[in-house]
Design a protein that fits this description.
The chain is mainly β and 268 residues long. 0% of the residues lie in helices and 44% in strands. It has no helices and 21 strands. The strands form six sheets. A four-stranded antiparallel β-sheet has the order 1-2-3-4, with no helix packed on it. Strands 5-6-7-8 form a four-stranded antiparallel β-sheet, with no helix packed on it. It is elongated and about 100 Å long.
């Protein structure tokens, strides 16, 4: 705005101050709070004013008020995760469902929706996933290798369909097969150039050309994406030397020699 930076807090219209996540969607701003549920602001960006404020809490279907993170899907629904291990979504300003993922009520730190599957990163219990068509059948992501840490701070897919997991020990690049089983995990820590080590909660994004940016306890780390599919090519062959009976022939140009080089059976 022309007037500079504006602050919304509970002294000038916004009901709560402890903010966990913000999503800007069309003319609405969705705000996840630490202990007071979710707030939707109908915002006039040209005038810079809040036209309407809607709170989602226990009075209108939100079963838990401690929201850790949110994302928006392709249909415009707002998905949220809670401190006690539940997820839910808001469709057309209505809370549709809330599902408890693990019995031990593990905190869910991250939500990613990719290829009609939803992935949840937890605090201490690895990654859980389910098909979007069957949200009652969440299962733990497993396979041939294990994560360096089960604490998920960041989750993101790259352009080559790898899942990246950020933890307190660096990042893991996870390769999944068609059955969504782990086939390979490549860890990047301090010795591999990831000097940030501990990643920051949900501070991750990828740019237009596929590079991934990780927020860490020691600044920003960037993973530069490369094309892993090498195109085969016919190699170029060169003759450096011709030898007869292990003695080099240097009196002819082998590239322009148009006669038959006669050799006895003992002179290979």
């Amino acid at each position: 705005r022309e007037k500079g930076l504006e602050t919304l807090n509970n002294s000038n219209g916004f009901p709560f101050n402890n903010i966990k996540k913000i999503i800007v969607q069309n003319n609405a701003v969705w705000v996840a709070t630490q202990a007071s549920g979710i707030v939707k602001l109908d915002y006039d960006f040209e005038k810079g004013i809040v036209k309407k404020s809607t709170q989602f809490n226990k009075s209108n279907g939100l079963k838990e008020l401690s929201i850790i993170t949110m994302i928006a899907d392709d249909s415009g629904n707002i998905w949220y995760a809670t401190k006690t291990g539940a997820i839910g979504y808001i469709e057309n300003d209505t809370i549709k469902s809330q599902i408890l993922i693990t019995k031990n009520k593990t905190t869910i730190n991250n939500i990613v929706i990719h290829n009609d599957r939803i992935y949840l990163g937890t605090l201490g219990d690895g990654i859980w996933w389910a098909n979007m068509s069957n949200l009652t059948a969440f299962q733990k992501l497993t396979g041939e290798q294990q994560f360096v840490s089960n604490n998920s701070y960041q989750l993101i897919f790259d352009k080559n369909q790898h899942l990246w997991l950020g933890t307190e020990k660096g990042v893991d690049r996870v390769t999944l097969n068609d059955s969504n089983l782990i086939t390979e995990i490549t860890h990047f820590g301090k010795n591999d150039g990831f000097i940030g080590i501990e990643t920051s909660l949900n501070a991750v994004d990828k740019d237009d050309i596929g590079n991934i940016w990780f927020g860490t306890a020691n600044g920003i780390s960037q993973y530069i994406s490369t094309n892993t599919q090498n195109k085969p090519r016919i190699p170029l062959l060169f003759f450096e030397k011709v030898a007869v009976a292990y003695q080099a022939i240097d009196s002819i140009n082998i590239n322009t020699y148009n006669k038959v080089l006669s050799l006895s059976p003992r002179k290979n």
